[in-house]
Amino acid sequence: MNNSTIKKIVWLSWLISSLALAGYLGNQLVLEEQKPDFLIGETSHGHYQIELQCDACHTSELGGEEILQNACLTCHEDELKTALDSHPKKKFTDPRNADLVAILDARNCVSCHSEHNEDIMHPMGVTLPDDFCVQCHENIAQERPSHEGMGFETCASAGCHNYHDNRALYEDFLLKHQTPGEIAHKTLPATLSNYLQTIGAQWQPESAASVFENEISAAHIKADILLDWQHSAHGNAAVGCNSCHVDAQQNWIEKPGHQQCSACHEPQVAGFLSGKHGMRLKAGLSPMTPGQARLPMKPENSHVELGCNSCHAAHTDNTQYAAAEACLTCHADDHSQAFEQSPHGQLWQQVRDGVIASEQGVSCATCHMPVMEQEIFGSEQWLTQHNQNATLRPNEKMIRPTCMQCHSLEFSIDALADPDLINNNFNGLPTHHVPGIEMATQRDH
Length: 445
Hints:
Elements: H1 3-30, H2 65-82, H3 89-93, H4 98-103, H5 134-137, H6 140-143, H7 171-176, H8 192-198, H9 208-213, H10 215-218, H11 223-230, H12 233-236, H13 241-245, H14 258-274, H15 279-282, H16 308-311, H17 319-330, H18 334-337, H19 343-352, H20 364-368, E1 371-376, E2 379-384, H21 409-416, H22 419-423, H23 436-444
Antiparallel strand pairs: 1-2
């Protein structure tokens, strides 16, 4: 083979390879929803599960800060309103703050939360140095002598302040709850029937006899499932096979998904889709599996696809299972593995043993999916919040709806500021004290 032939082969190989690569990348760029080869860097823990769904945030090819800002608000605007955001955009559009905006343009989320920058990513997806508060609060020690000598890197890390959600740490709240008071305990509707009546749900009541009379359900009924259903919350409320398994076109759905559940449990499903477990489904991706998580998970269940039924078995009355055992089926981090031996876990064991009522126990869901007041059809109702982000980060969000149901404000702040205590699932006492209440009291006098 002469040199001329070899050169032709090399050029032909290069041309074919280049065209194949261009076709592969062009197809992914133009036609595929997920574009892993164009990912410029990993995203934060909050967005990791949907980072391959580029158009979840980059909603227009034209790009720009306004496009990204709208994308942020699409998912987080309601959360910021609920949190009574202590640094809202309007604070920075005030002309009197123009000099501060020139230093740090906090009107746009991406000024502080710049994704795909894993090398500079801090907790909560913040990509600014830890002492970013100094940009606007440099003279805080002059206004508040109690802050003299405190480093700005401790503002958010010492259990005193949070940029957006500061509700449990405001001075007024600290003063109001400096001594433990009576707590209004939260209760869910006593039965599924009560809940369905509260939200005005309409359904055709079914019994064990009537499901056999319906030719669609009768063709699919299994004796063991029917027996379970009769003793379940759905069975007691006469919510039968056809309510969940038959669609509007009278087709049988073998495994109903969250779409069917939302017919009666819309707020719960909305919370699920906004939270860690359901955010992939909301973005149009495949269901999340534990194998896709960054947290340690049990390898034997890494393939489980998360949906309503992965925690709630619809044919059994299983809220106790869903509240703790379902979580521990997948989660294998230190905090989760320490639960059963912790004071909270021991209390929950008494619930499982029937010694105390479930309202007196503390399960995983008690803290991470607490019962919170939510609006349904124009009225406030107590419901389980299925969006873990409502209390997860910053963890001080957990103080008001969860910790203070049993503990004092002072203990709650100290406990949540102790990473080792969180790691061992609160098996012990806080090792240091956050003096926020004392500082607020001194300033008040």
